[in-house]
Design brief:
There is one protein chain. The chain is built from 20 helices and 14 strands. It has 572 residues and is mainly alpha-helical. The protein has two domains: 234 residues, Serine Threonine Protein Phosphatase 5, Tetratricopeptide repeat, CATH 1.25.40.890; 170 residues, no CATH class. A hairpin with a 2-residue loop joins strand 7 and strand 8. Pfam families: SusD-like_3, SusD_RagB. It is found in: Cell outer membrane.
Length: 572
């Protein structure tokens, strides 16, 4: 960690401010130091904006390290760890570098707490700028610590369940980085404390509507309020986002592989329900949220709690993932395991339901299957995709590192209106980084509420059964939902909720982490399908070779070598 500090200031701090008019004229380079930043609002805000680096979006594709997908690139890092290369020296899921973002926000807090920056000559506006940006910094510090905790918490060599070091100050390059890990629960509580303090400073939402002003700002002049907290900054972290993140953290802490704690389950359900009730509870489930990635309405029509800014039209993801016959690299291949997880259209599990035919496996299935996965014979990306015998370059294993390895290609997250033309020209479309959407929050509530009191435990006007029913109805499953009605126990509802989470959040970077927090097997082999006319056969595609202790991922080896106070997780 220490070596990051030596160079990151010169390399990065002004990236957020070089476009500002204040910096168009040459200045004495000797002023480009922390003293200058501490006196210059634009430069100081540039430090804060570094805290928005390393946010986790939906394009990680770490599903290739799970039973949900195979990556067809032979040197893909997630393929490598899935096949047995995971170690403290090689861990592509590590988030230890998020400490760099932590140090940036700590530097900003040091600057802002010195009280030398004047954000605005108006006293009220200046005060609101201070409150809001301090709240942002605290929330971002908490979030980055959560990312690190999620990736590196575990039972140490001492046998204690450990969290990670919690850094609350800026550490100079010659400072002491030999910091011990807190206990797991102490880390969770430290993150919660920062989130809670942020909530005392942040607007619930950034808005130009006076009705959206929350109590902490209601005594300020509204026209001045809009200068500091108006809709122009509505992609920054807000009070509503913090409340949703608290629910995510509480569910993680409560999970079986960690505290398995009813108090944290209750906290997760309560925090989630309070945010969900601001959109009408269960009735607020967004109708087009299932395919939020298809057009601008999906991103702005109410499904997003938090997303990034609009990207320039591009085809970057489609080039990686489209099937080869439509000029993609076919990189992410859903598994038969995942396909089997989609129920029948009746709502009953496919492999257990009357009417399921393994020689006609896609008939009368959950409509989400056809929305998320390219099936044999689908028209997608401007062409018909055939993955069976006679399918040309789209056929399974036809061309290494281009054709599917499982018999399936990915459809979810891709813009089907992108075209990668044979002549090299492209029809590009807009994409967005998504950090949190309401469907995840509904699923957090359902999981937590069920663990608190079962399928029909009511918390703030909602139950797990009602939420799962609304999600499955939106998916297009037959109504009334006879399978959901047959669920009576907490255990059976738990299995259904986990499966719905697997489907609804597929390929958004959740499965890898869910398997671990649930304490489920990591070594279920990835399976695929071979299609020859009307004959379907199924086989193992790729083994999963994780050690028993991989539920808890390692601290980077070089960090434990440099800093003896940093205890490694057991087994690594």
């Amino acid at each position: 960690m220490k070596n990051l500090i030596k160079y990151m200031f010169i390399m990065s701090v002004f990236a957020g401010v070089v476009s500002c008019e204040d910096f168009l004229d040459p200045i004495d380079e000797n002023r480009l130091d922390f003293e200058f930043v501490g006196e210059t609002p634009a430069a100081a805000e540039g430090v804060l904006l570094q805290g928005y680096s390393r946010l986790i979006d939906q394009f990680t594709f770490d599903e290739a390290a799970t039973d949900d997908a195979v990556n067809n690139q032979l040197d893909n890092d997630f393929k490598r760890i899935a096949k047995g290369e995971l170690s403290a020296q090689f861990n592509p899921t590590s988030r230890w570098r998020n400490y760099e973002s932590v140090l940036w926000v700590n530097k900003f807090l040091q600057i802002i707490n010195a009280g030398e920056i004047v954000w605005n000559t108006d006293e009220e506006i200046n005060e609101m700028f201070y409150m809001r940006m301090k709240g942002e910094a605290l929330a971002l510090r908490a979030l980055h610590h959560f990312y690190i905790l999620q990736a590196h918490a575990g039972y140490g060599t001492s046998g204690q369940l450990l969290g990670v070091p919690y850094i609350k100050g800026f550490i100079e390059s010659d400072g002491d980085f030999n910091l011990p890990r807190l206990s797991f629960e102490d880390t969770v509580e430290a993150i919660m404390a920062d989130f809670d303090e942020a909530l005392t400073l942040l607007p619930t939402v950034y808005s130009d509507n006076q009705s959206d002003v929350n109590p902490i700002y209601e005594d300020y002049d509204f026209n001045k309020y809009k200068v500091a907290n108006g809709s122009a900054i509505n992609l920054r972290i807000s009070g509503k986002i913090v409340s949703a993140l608290k629910a995510r953290l509480a569910l993680f802490a409560a999970s079986p592989a960690f505290l398995n704690d009813q108090g944290y389950y209750n906290m997760a359900a309560t925090d989630a329900s309070e945010v969900l009730n601001t959109i009408g509870g269960v009735s607020g489930l967004v109708p087009n949220g299932l395919e939020f990635y298809l057009d601008s309405d999906g991103y702005t029509g109410g499904e997003m709690i938090w997303r990034g800014s609009e990207q320039n039209p591009n085809a970057t993801i489609e080039k990686r993932v489209f099937p080869p016959s439509v000029n993609g690299s076919g990189e992410i291949n859903p598994t038969q395991n995942l396909v089997d997880a989609f129920p029948m259209q009746s709502g009953f599990p496919a492999t257990e339901a009357n009417g399921y035919n393994p020689q006609d496996p896609y008939t009368n299935r959950d409509p989400r299957l056809a929305k998320f996965v390219v099936l044999n014979g689908d028209n997608f990306g401007g062409g018909t995709i055939n993955t069976g015998v006679g399918g040309g370059i789209d056929r399974r294993d036809s061309i290494p590192e281009f054709s599917t390895t499982t018999g399936y290609y990915l459809k979810k997250l891709l813009r089907p209106d992108v075209r990668l033309n044979d002549d090299g020209s492209e029809t590009t479309q807009r994409h967005y980084d998504v950090f949190f959407r309401y469907t995840e929050l509904f699923l957090i509530f359902a999981e937590a509420a069920n663990e608190v009191g079962g399928p029909d435990q009511q918390i703030n006007g909602m139950t797990a059964r009602e939420v799962i029913g609304a999600i499955r109805q939106r998916a297009g499953l037959a109504q009334p939902d006879a399978y959901l009605a047959s669920i009576t126990t907490k255990q059976d509802m738990r299995e259904l909720i986990r499966n719905e989470r697997r489907l609804e959040l597929s390929f958004e970077g959740h499965r890898f982490w869910d398997l671990r927090r649930w304490g489920l097997s990591l070594i279920e082999s990835a399976e695929g399908v071979n299609i020859n006319g009307t004959n379907y056969s199924y086989d193992q595609v790729e083994e999963r070779k994780y050690p028993d202790f991989a539920t808890y991922m390692p601290i980077p080896n070089d960090e434990t070598l440099k800093f003896p106070a940093l205890e490694q997780n057991s087994g690594w």
